[in-house]
Amino acid sequence: MKNMKNMKKVDIIGIQMDLGASKRGVNMGPAAIRHADIFAKLDDMGIDWRDKGDIIPQMDGESKPGLKHCGQIVEANARLYSEVLESLKGGRMPIVLGGDHSVAAGSVPAAVRHLGAVGVIWIDAHGDFNNRQSSPSGNMHGMPFSAVCGCGPEEMMPYGPYFADPRHAVQIGARDVDAVERQRLREAGVTVFSITEIDRMGLAHVVSRAIEIAGAGTQGIHVSFDIDAVTPDEAPGVGTPVHSGLTVREAFLAMEMLYECRQVCSMDMVEVNPILDIQNKTGNLACELILSLLGKTVF
Ligand SMILES: [Mn+2]
Question: What is the whole-number distance in angstroms between the Cα of residue 41 and the centre of ligand 1?
Fold first, then answer.
């Protein structure tokens, strides 16, 4: 493993993407997280941060059958890929503010390109493991986990074979997964800790297993956090809410354990939708979870 101990240099990269989702509004997610005073709080923690601004998708682009807004998503993700790669090369930890979850198809391959083998921990109510054929909607935010694991759609990964190995890919918090998607996750060899396993084994046990699976034999762990993993009573600003999710404390515990493992190389915080939120409750929570992953503790 490359030395990621005390990595206190952080780059914030926003991407105003909402073309992968069915509802508009997550393009304002980066602003919501910034308005939660993320930079003042990073200063308080003594973290050296840079704000690399927001990537804004182009106005027009191609759609393909089964891949809505494919052209714009792939083009914006290519810019995200370059930014994430540049940060990693400079020894800085990229934190990507989405945007819908399709942006992970730009960030994860950059981490793989830079570090070689990278484990992925995907914290989400959904599987995000569809491809063009299996997706019922054609919404590309339901496909990035599949894409970064090399299971398609190929259009989302134009950078070269910078895939995460599904044997080091872990899903945490699933509670709304299509039947075909479930089959695809199994066949790919992704480890899934659904909300039921979390209930049975406890979040701490699940996360320590996830760190073992994603971290053993890899050069780093990419954490992709979809805020809809958290129960919608606590995170109402999401486009695809699913009842009975992670509690806020479970989400913080996951972040604290991921900080302590010292293997996290990069992170996405996605799907904050300010239009659907209540007084930026979800934006504030997303901000605090990022800080927790960077080492903010309660005591
Ligand atoms: Mn997602």
Answer: 26
| pTM greater than 0.85 | yes
- Is 124 an annotated catalytic residue? yes
Average pLDDT of adjacent 10-residue blocks, the chain of 299 residues = 60 98 96 98 95 96 93 98 98 97 98 98 98 96 98 95 97 96 98 98 98 98 98 97 97 98 97 98 98 90
Give the CATH H-level superfamily of domain 9-293: Ureohydrolase domain (3.40.800.10)
69 is a catalytic site residue? no
Around 171, how many Cα atoms within 13 Å sit in the side-chain half-sphere? Answer: 29
CA–centroid distance, residue 235 to ligand 1 (Å): 14
Question: Which residue out of 11, 100, 101, 181 is catalytically annotated?
Answer: 101
C-alpha 196 to ligand 1 mean position (Å): 18
Spell out the alpha helix ranges (H) of 45-194. Answer: 70-89, 104-115, 144-148, 179-188
Which one of 18, 54, 83, 124 is the catalytic residue? 124
What residues have CB less than 8 Å from 182, skipping those under 6 apart?
127
Nearest to 166 by CA among 229, 105, 122: 122
